[in-house]
Amino acid sequence: MSTMRPERTAVILGGSRGVGRAIARYLAERGVTHLFIVFLEQVEAAESLTRELESCGVKVTSLQYNLGVAEDIQTMAERIRKLTSQIDYLVHCVALTTFKPLMRVRPNQWDLTMAVSTRSFVHVVQQLSDLMPRGSSVVAISSTGSQRFNANYGALGVSKSALESAVRYLAVELAGKEIRVNGVISGLLGGASLPLFPEIQEVVKQTLERTPSGRLGTPDDIAEAVYFLLTGASWMTGQHLILDGGFCLT
Amino acid sequence: MWKKEEIEEEVRHIVAKSLLLKPELVLLSSRFFLDLEAESIDILDIRFAIESTFGFKFQNDEIRELLQVLANEHQVTEKDIPELFTVGRMADFVVYKLIPSS
Questions:
Q1: ipTM of the complex
Q2: Running DSSP on this structure, what letter comes out for residue A11?
Q3: Which of A160, A177, A205, A227 is catalytic?
Q4: How far lies A158's CA from each of A165, A249, B8, in Å?
Q5: Chain B closest-CA separation from residue A110 CA (Å)
Q6: For A76-92, what is the mean pLDDT?
Q7: pTM of the model
């Protein structure tokens, strides 16, 4: 695995909680010097993370923007542009949805899920890629619900499938600039990261029964893989790492 | 300059459009979660539409604070909030944001 050089800047979309927060910590502990944390609502979480990372000597800029709105993304990009001339790592870790059968998802719920969870990825990359130098890297966080049926996960599952497709397209389109674009496909995460599914405990039970590693994932599991994709894997682009404890093999 | 009645009418229409309901079925007294079967994602959708229509941004956790004020006013716990959170309450909040003196 390569070692980070001094003065590295990362933008983490959805960085105040859960997986995004774990990624922010992981990068801060490994040499990223300036972190942009983008969040929608969790002000206290963003503030506590900022305090924590700043106490470790990392410069943190927390930005509250609605990634479901195109104008907000443009405004966010303009602000970032004023604060840095270079982005080395960009991580998309944003999702918003409703957990219920796809047959009952209303048009507004579908549109918001797609706008926040998928369109924002493409739009942010469009807005910020010119700040990304050769050798920089983008990672998007997806989930195994993109590849197979999960009850009550239809809207986000479809959205994540589109996200993975966008990773592949952007990887080709940005290859000439030597910007790599990859993704992580996460299985079910435990603890506070458990989604608010109906009947989630039954889902956990069934997942554990089929998971060879015998445990659910953690945000740190995802952060570790994201770090690998951002800083190593220099000939890897347009690909996804599946992190599910072996669930998909059974 | 918006008038209170215009704001209420516009909020009713935003809610109706978001939830795919006929506007006449959305009343100021309609409870989001109980009468209109809204979900949390719908409240966000409605929030974004309100911000776009009226040209202001909800600050930080204002929706949560609005619900907390409701709970405090009625001396109920968080689980009782669905009983209290109406379209009219949301419209009142927009009125407060746009016409602070009202």
A1: 0.82
A2: E
A3: A160
A4: 11, 21, 36
A5: 10
A6: 97
A7: 0.90
